[in-house]
Amino acid sequence: MRHPFRIAVAVAVVLAVHATWTRPAHAQESDLGWAFTTELTGVWTAGNARTTTWGLDATLKHVWEHAEVKFEGGSVRSQSTLTTRTAVGTTENFQITEEETTEKTAEAFYARGRYDYTFSPNFYAFGGADWLRNTFSGIDSRFLFAAGAGNVWIDNERVKFKTDYSATYTFQEDVVTNPFIKTNFPGVRLAYDFFWDVSSTTEFTSVLTGDLNLDNTDDIRAVLANALLIDVIPHVAFKPSHVLLWRNEPSLTEVPLVDSGGTPTGETVVTPLKKLDSVFKVALVVKF
Protein backbone atom coordinates (compact mmCIF):
# COMPACT_ATOMS: atom_id res chain seq x y z
CA MET A 1 0.00 0.00 0.00
CA ARG A 2 2.85 2.41 0.74
CA HIS A 3 4.41 2.50 -2.74
CA PRO A 4 1.19 3.20 -4.73
CA PHE A 5 0.27 6.00 -2.36
CA ARG A 6 3.73 7.57 -2.65
CA ILE A 7 3.46 7.38 -6.42
CA ALA A 8 0.04 9.08 -6.27
CA VAL A 9 1.45 11.87 -4.09
CA ALA A 10 4.40 12.36 -6.45
CA VAL A 11 2.10 12.56 -9.47
CA ALA A 12 -0.13 15.08 -7.66
CA VAL A 13 2.89 17.28 -6.88
CA VAL A 14 4.04 17.20 -10.52
CA LEU A 15 0.55 18.12 -11.70
CA ALA A 16 0.40 20.95 -9.18
CA VAL A 17 3.66 22.46 -10.40
CA HIS A 18 2.68 22.02 -14.04
CA ALA A 19 -0.71 23.66 -13.57
CA THR A 20 0.53 26.74 -11.68
CA TRP A 21 0.14 30.03 -13.55
CA THR A 22 1.86 33.30 -12.75
CA ARG A 23 -0.83 35.83 -13.50
CA PRO A 24 -2.99 36.97 -10.53
CA ALA A 25 -6.47 35.58 -9.93
CA HIS A 26 -9.53 37.69 -9.19
CA ALA A 27 -12.80 36.64 -7.63
CA GLN A 28 -15.93 37.79 -9.42
CA GLU A 29 -17.31 40.97 -7.91
CA SER A 30 -20.73 39.37 -7.38
CA ASP A 31 -19.14 36.71 -5.14
CA LEU A 32 -17.28 39.11 -2.85
CA GLY A 33 -18.37 39.64 0.76
CA TRP A 34 -20.19 37.53 3.32
CA ALA A 35 -22.54 34.63 2.57
CA PHE A 36 -24.48 32.38 4.95
CA THR A 37 -26.30 29.12 4.24
CA THR A 38 -28.20 26.89 6.62
CA GLU A 39 -29.71 23.43 6.07
CA LEU A 40 -32.55 21.99 8.13
CA THR A 41 -33.43 18.29 8.16
CA GLY A 42 -36.26 16.70 10.11
CA VAL A 43 -38.23 13.44 10.08
CA TRP A 44 -40.87 12.51 12.68
CA THR A 45 -43.16 9.48 12.85
CA ALA A 46 -45.83 8.70 15.45
CA GLY A 47 -48.35 6.02 16.27
CA ASN A 48 -47.35 2.38 16.69
CA ALA A 49 -43.70 3.35 16.18
CA ARG A 50 -42.11 6.70 17.00
CA THR A 51 -38.91 7.98 15.48
CA THR A 52 -37.29 11.39 15.47
CA THR A 53 -34.48 12.51 13.20
CA TRP A 54 -33.18 16.03 12.94
CA GLY A 55 -30.14 17.68 11.42
CA LEU A 56 -28.70 21.16 11.20
CA ASP A 57 -25.82 22.34 8.99
CA ALA A 58 -24.53 25.87 8.53
CA THR A 59 -21.86 27.53 6.37
CA LEU A 60 -20.47 31.04 6.80
CA LYS A 61 -17.87 32.37 4.39
CA HIS A 62 -16.25 35.60 3.30
CA VAL A 63 -14.67 36.09 -0.11
CA TRP A 64 -12.01 38.71 -0.89
CA GLU A 65 -10.36 39.37 -4.24
CA HIS A 66 -7.60 36.81 -3.63
CA ALA A 67 -8.71 34.94 -0.51
CA GLU A 68 -11.60 33.14 1.15
CA VAL A 69 -12.37 32.05 4.70
CA LYS A 70 -15.06 29.47 5.41
CA PHE A 71 -16.60 28.08 8.62
CA GLU A 72 -18.87 25.04 8.66
CA GLY A 73 -20.64 23.16 11.40
CA GLY A 74 -23.52 20.81 11.95
CA SER A 75 -25.06 17.84 13.68
CA VAL A 76 -27.46 14.97 13.11
CA ARG A 77 -29.36 12.91 15.67
CA SER A 78 -31.87 10.10 15.44
CA GLN A 79 -33.81 8.24 18.12
CA SER A 80 -36.50 5.56 18.14
CA THR A 81 -39.15 4.68 20.70
CA LEU A 82 -40.07 1.01 20.85
CA THR A 83 -43.28 -0.20 22.51
CA THR A 84 -43.32 -3.63 24.18
CA ARG A 85 -46.84 -5.00 24.84
CA THR A 86 -47.64 -7.72 27.37
CA ALA A 87 -50.99 -9.46 27.98
CA VAL A 88 -51.81 -10.35 31.60
CA GLY A 89 -54.66 -12.75 32.46
CA THR A 90 -56.35 -15.50 30.45
CA THR A 91 -57.23 -15.75 26.78
CA GLU A 92 -60.83 -14.75 27.63
CA ASN A 93 -60.00 -12.03 30.16
CA PHE A 94 -56.77 -10.12 29.88
CA GLN A 95 -55.29 -6.65 30.17
CA ILE A 96 -52.64 -5.12 27.92
CA THR A 97 -49.69 -3.31 29.48
CA GLU A 98 -47.25 -1.27 27.44
CA GLU A 99 -43.66 -0.35 28.17
CA GLU A 100 -41.84 2.21 26.02
CA THR A 101 -38.08 2.34 25.54
CA THR A 102 -36.42 5.28 23.81
CA GLU A 103 -33.01 4.65 22.30
CA LYS A 104 -30.64 6.97 20.47
CA THR A 105 -29.71 5.33 17.16
CA ALA A 106 -27.38 7.90 15.56
CA GLU A 107 -25.57 11.07 16.57
CA ALA A 108 -22.73 13.05 15.05
CA PHE A 109 -21.31 16.57 15.36
CA TYR A 110 -18.71 18.36 13.26
CA ALA A 111 -17.05 21.76 12.90
CA ARG A 112 -14.37 22.97 10.53
CA GLY A 113 -12.70 26.12 9.31
CA ARG A 114 -10.47 26.85 6.32
CA TYR A 115 -8.57 29.78 4.79
CA ASP A 116 -7.61 29.81 1.09
CA TYR A 117 -5.29 32.24 -0.66
CA THR A 118 -5.24 32.31 -4.47
CA PHE A 119 -1.90 32.96 -6.16
CA SER A 120 -3.13 32.42 -9.75
CA PRO A 121 -6.26 31.20 -11.53
CA ASN A 122 -5.01 27.64 -11.18
CA PHE A 123 -3.07 27.53 -7.90
CA TYR A 124 -3.91 28.27 -4.27
CA ALA A 125 -2.66 27.48 -0.77
CA PHE A 126 -4.78 26.78 2.29
CA GLY A 127 -4.80 25.92 5.95
CA GLY A 128 -7.59 24.60 8.12
CA ALA A 129 -8.81 22.50 11.01
CA ASP A 130 -11.56 19.87 11.41
CA TRP A 131 -13.30 18.51 14.50
CA LEU A 132 -15.58 15.47 14.58
CA ARG A 133 -17.55 13.49 17.17
CA ASN A 134 -19.32 10.35 16.02
CA THR A 135 -19.64 7.94 18.94
CA PHE A 136 -21.62 5.42 16.88
CA SER A 137 -18.53 5.10 14.67
CA GLY A 138 -16.33 4.85 17.76
CA ILE A 139 -14.91 8.40 17.66
CA ASP A 140 -15.33 10.47 20.81
CA SER A 141 -13.29 13.40 19.49
CA ARG A 142 -11.00 13.93 16.51
CA PHE A 143 -9.10 17.13 15.71
CA LEU A 144 -7.30 17.34 12.37
CA PHE A 145 -5.07 20.22 11.25
CA ALA A 146 -4.16 20.57 7.57
CA ALA A 147 -1.93 22.80 5.45
CA GLY A 148 -1.36 22.44 1.74
CA ALA A 149 -2.05 23.62 -1.77
CA GLY A 150 -4.39 22.92 -4.64
CA ASN A 151 -5.10 23.35 -8.32
CA VAL A 152 -8.15 24.59 -10.20
CA TRP A 153 -8.45 22.49 -13.36
CA ILE A 154 -11.80 23.72 -14.67
CA ASP A 155 -13.51 27.00 -13.81
CA ASN A 156 -16.28 28.29 -16.03
CA GLU A 157 -19.93 29.22 -15.66
CA ARG A 158 -21.13 25.58 -15.74
CA VAL A 159 -18.36 23.41 -14.29
CA LYS A 160 -15.73 23.84 -11.57
CA PHE A 161 -13.19 21.19 -10.57
CA LYS A 162 -10.26 21.47 -8.17
CA THR A 163 -7.94 19.17 -6.23
CA ASP A 164 -6.20 19.56 -2.85
CA TYR A 165 -2.98 18.08 -1.44
CA SER A 166 -2.06 18.66 2.18
CA ALA A 167 -0.07 17.48 5.17
CA THR A 168 -2.14 16.80 8.30
CA TYR A 169 -1.80 16.04 11.98
CA THR A 170 -4.57 14.30 13.91
CA PHE A 171 -5.45 14.10 17.61
CA GLN A 172 -8.03 11.37 18.16
CA GLU A 173 -9.83 9.96 21.20
CA ASP A 174 -11.86 6.80 20.64
CA VAL A 175 -14.84 5.65 22.68
CA VAL A 176 -13.00 2.34 23.21
CA THR A 177 -9.23 2.79 23.40
CA ASN A 178 -7.08 0.59 21.18
CA PRO A 179 -3.77 0.12 23.05
CA PHE A 180 -1.97 -1.04 19.89
CA ILE A 181 -2.30 2.16 17.84
CA LYS A 182 -1.26 5.77 18.29
CA THR A 183 -4.05 8.29 18.76
CA ASN A 184 -1.91 11.27 17.61
CA PHE A 185 -0.31 10.92 14.19
CA PRO A 186 0.84 12.78 11.05
CA GLY A 187 -0.89 12.17 7.77
CA VAL A 188 -1.46 13.11 4.14
CA ARG A 189 -4.77 14.25 2.64
CA LEU A 190 -5.88 14.25 -1.01
CA ALA A 191 -9.24 15.68 -2.08
CA TYR A 192 -11.30 16.84 -5.02
CA ASP A 193 -14.20 19.30 -5.23
CA PHE A 194 -16.54 19.15 -8.25
CA PHE A 195 -19.40 21.53 -9.12
CA TRP A 196 -21.80 21.25 -12.07
CA ASP A 197 -24.52 23.77 -12.89
CA VAL A 198 -26.95 21.25 -14.35
CA SER A 199 -29.67 23.78 -15.16
CA SER A 200 -30.93 27.20 -14.15
CA THR A 201 -32.47 25.67 -11.01
CA THR A 202 -30.29 22.62 -10.26
CA GLU A 203 -26.68 22.20 -9.10
CA PHE A 204 -24.70 19.01 -8.48
CA THR A 205 -21.71 18.83 -6.14
CA SER A 206 -19.31 16.01 -5.35
CA VAL A 207 -16.52 16.15 -2.75
CA LEU A 208 -14.11 13.30 -2.05
CA THR A 209 -11.55 13.45 0.79
CA GLY A 210 -8.98 10.75 1.48
CA ASP A 211 -6.68 10.60 4.52
CA LEU A 212 -3.64 8.40 5.11
CA ASN A 213 -2.15 7.81 8.57
CA LEU A 214 1.63 7.95 8.11
CA ASP A 215 2.23 6.09 11.40
CA ASN A 216 0.05 3.21 10.20
CA THR A 217 -0.38 3.16 6.42
CA ASP A 218 -3.16 0.56 6.70
CA ASP A 219 -5.27 3.24 8.40
CA ILE A 220 -6.95 4.92 5.43
CA ARG A 221 -10.10 7.05 5.61
CA ALA A 222 -12.30 8.39 2.83
CA VAL A 223 -15.45 10.53 2.74
CA LEU A 224 -17.52 10.92 -0.44
CA ALA A 225 -20.37 13.46 -0.38
CA ASN A 226 -22.70 13.91 -3.36
CA ALA A 227 -25.61 16.36 -3.38
CA LEU A 228 -28.21 18.01 -5.59
CA LEU A 229 -29.33 21.58 -4.87
CA ILE A 230 -32.72 22.33 -6.43
CA ASP A 231 -34.04 25.89 -6.19
CA VAL A 232 -37.65 26.15 -5.05
CA ILE A 233 -38.07 29.90 -4.58
CA PRO A 234 -35.48 32.68 -4.29
CA HIS A 235 -33.07 31.96 -1.39
CA VAL A 236 -34.71 28.60 -0.63
CA ALA A 237 -33.69 25.24 -2.09
CA PHE A 238 -34.34 21.53 -1.70
CA LYS A 239 -31.22 19.38 -1.15
CA PRO A 240 -31.02 15.57 -1.22
CA SER A 241 -27.53 14.30 -0.39
CA HIS A 242 -25.69 11.03 0.15
CA VAL A 243 -22.50 10.65 2.20
CA LEU A 244 -20.28 7.58 2.40
CA LEU A 245 -17.72 7.34 5.23
CA TRP A 246 -15.17 4.54 4.92
CA ARG A 247 -12.24 3.56 7.13
CA ASN A 248 -10.00 0.58 6.44
CA GLU A 249 -9.21 0.12 10.15
CA PRO A 250 -12.37 1.20 12.03
CA SER A 251 -12.54 1.98 15.74
CA LEU A 252 -13.37 -0.68 18.32
CA THR A 253 -16.57 -1.30 20.26
CA GLU A 254 -17.28 -3.28 23.43
CA VAL A 255 -19.65 -6.27 23.22
CA PRO A 256 -21.16 -8.11 26.24
CA LEU A 257 -19.87 -11.67 26.57
CA VAL A 258 -22.29 -14.57 27.14
CA ASP A 259 -21.51 -18.23 27.65
CA SER A 260 -22.56 -21.07 25.33
CA GLY A 261 -25.95 -21.23 27.05
CA GLY A 262 -26.66 -17.54 26.48
CA THR A 263 -26.12 -16.47 30.09
CA PRO A 264 -24.33 -13.11 30.53
CA THR A 265 -20.86 -13.48 32.08
CA GLY A 266 -20.59 -9.84 33.16
CA GLU A 267 -17.51 -9.40 30.95
CA THR A 268 -17.03 -7.65 27.63
CA VAL A 269 -14.84 -8.16 24.57
CA VAL A 270 -13.77 -5.66 21.90
CA THR A 271 -14.38 -6.00 18.18
CA PRO A 272 -13.98 -3.66 15.19
CA LEU A 273 -16.96 -1.68 13.97
CA LYS A 274 -18.05 -1.80 10.31
CA LYS A 275 -15.79 -0.12 7.78
CA LEU A 276 -18.53 1.75 5.92
CA ASP A 277 -21.21 4.21 7.09
CA SER A 278 -23.85 5.62 4.74
CA VAL A 279 -25.96 8.73 5.38
CA PHE A 280 -28.81 9.91 3.15
CA LYS A 281 -30.44 13.24 3.95
CA VAL A 282 -33.07 15.51 2.47
CA ALA A 283 -32.71 19.09 3.66
CA LEU A 284 -34.33 22.49 3.22
CA VAL A 285 -31.62 25.05 2.42
CA VAL A 286 -31.93 28.76 3.20
CA LYS A 287 -29.36 31.08 1.58
CA PHE A 288 -28.56 34.63 2.68
The profile of the biggest β sheet is:
12 strands, antiparallel, barrel
Quaternary form = single chain
* Biggest sheet: strand arrangement: 1-2-3-4-5-6-7-8-9-10-11-14
CATH level-two architecture: Beta Barrel
Look at the structure and name the CATH superfamily: monomeric porin ompg
> At the first level of CATH, what is the class?
Mainly Beta
CATH topology: Porin
Overall residue-averaged pLDDT value: 87
Describe the protein in words.
With 288 residues, the chain is mainly beta. The protein has one domain (2-87, 96-287): monomeric porin ompg (Porin, Beta Barrel), CATH 2.40.160.40. It has one helix at 2-19; strands at residues 33-45, 50-63, 67-89, 94-120, 123-134, 139-155, 159-174, 184-197, 202-213, 220-233, 236-247, 252-258, 264-272, 276-287.
